Amino acid sequence: MKHQITKLITLLMLIMPFLVDAQNPIIRDQFTADPTARVFNGKVYLYPSHDIMPPQGVASCKDWFCMEDYHVFSSENLTQWTDHGMIIHQNKVPWVKKDSYAMWAPDCVYRNNKYYFYFPSQPANGGFAVGVAIADKPEGPFTPEQEPIRGIMGIDPCVLLASDGNAYIFWGNGRCAMLKENMKELAGDSRGCLDGLPNNRAEGPFAFEYNGNFYLTYPYVRQETEVLAYAMSKNPLGPYKYMGLIMAEHANGCWTNHHSIINYKDQWYLFYHHNAFSPNDDKRRSVQIEKLYFNADGTIQEVKETMRGVGINQATEKIEIDRYSSASEDVTTTLIDEKNPFLSFEATLPAKDSWFKYNDVDFDCIEDGYLIMNVNAADDTKLCVRESSAEGKVIACLDIKKSSEWGTQEADLEYVPKGVIDLVVTNEGEGAVSVDWVKFVNSDNKKDKEKEKDSSEADDKNEEE
Question: More exposed terminus of the chain, fewer Cβ within 10 Å: N or C?
């Protein structure tokens, strides 16, 4: 029986979309970069490029970016993301050079009752071009056109559906043009929308409209690595006036930063990428999200990147609490294993009174139950989870024994908060301890789990007999 259940679970994983719980970075089972986020049917759909490790023998990928396909992800709460799987592969597009590994930043828009996915790659005759694939649903299946769009030589397409009823496409280092109604051809000659603006090695333009203004946002190299900048205009094709930065250079020197900006449920968000999962390799990036705000005059407030990211976690989710919002000065966060970055991070509380805070956890889903925490302790110690502050009301405490490996420990809840609160983890013993994730479980679920375990053991026993 147990073996049959295992086979069934494996089959379901192959045919069903894969769900990823995440903070920053938001996708935790693969590298993702150049994120274009769009709102379709009340959900956020994410269309990133897909960094992979260089395949053996592929010279074009050695010490460089390597991208062979595209996935699409969706979410309703920005913390749980469904991977709908691969939608385009380099060797399944008629005009793309086989094994070119150059599928850079894409975009997707909805018009004419169809979804149009725009993506760059290398044609068989060299250079770069932008193609279109069309679908009836935002997650596909997408069917690529036989040929790329004539008149576009470059990468990183973005399509703006403007309030004037027209569609405009932007690409490369700020080239732009109007699209025909069929969304597959240019309606006229292109122009340079970034001409006269700071644009050293500019790429990845993303255009949007808000409150009567058109915004052309883009990465460019201000000093040695990319910043995210923006310009404004009253016309989608410009001229644009440079306004300043959206995000400064990454602190650790990641060379690139591509992005998109959306409004979802009356909140603006910036999607961007960083190399958090590959700190020694800035060619393998991962998507992150922050909230974005406008000033009264329409200018954009500069955004600071965080580990916490955005979204409200349900207490019953597996919460990557090592991506804390704030912490005492002695707390550190590192990858659990740099050789396997998707094991994610650990936050270390090195001494008594060390603490970190994780914002926005909803406890309305918990009535009474217990806490599960994945920990690794260098010494015996005690951890407590509190509400709001290091002196806040105790939710649960764990007496932790020294261990040389990761393991989960459980503790009954002493107190159940109500509504959305901030969690604070405090070290209240003498030893150092590292924390990976936490999860809160209702008591009824624990009883059901114990029944399932008893039933499984009985089935195994019957199989043996």
Answer: C
**pLDDT tens readout for residues 104-139:** 999 999 999 999 999 999 999 999 999 999 999 999
CATH topology of domain 2-292: Tachylectin-2; Chain A (2.115.10)
Among residues 107, 203, 290, 317, which one is catalytic? 203
Does residue 228 surpass a pLDDT of 50?
A: yes
- Largest Cα separation within the chain, whole Å, is 81
Active-site pick, 34, 290, 317, 322: 34
The span from the first CA to the last CA of the chain, in angstroms, equals 13
203 assigned to active site: yes
Does the annotation mark 145 as catalytic?
no
Specify the CATH number for 313-447; select among 2.60.40.1240, 2.60.120.260, 2.10.70.10, 3.40.50.2300: 2.60.120.260
Determine phi and psi for 370, rounding to 5 degrees: -150, 165
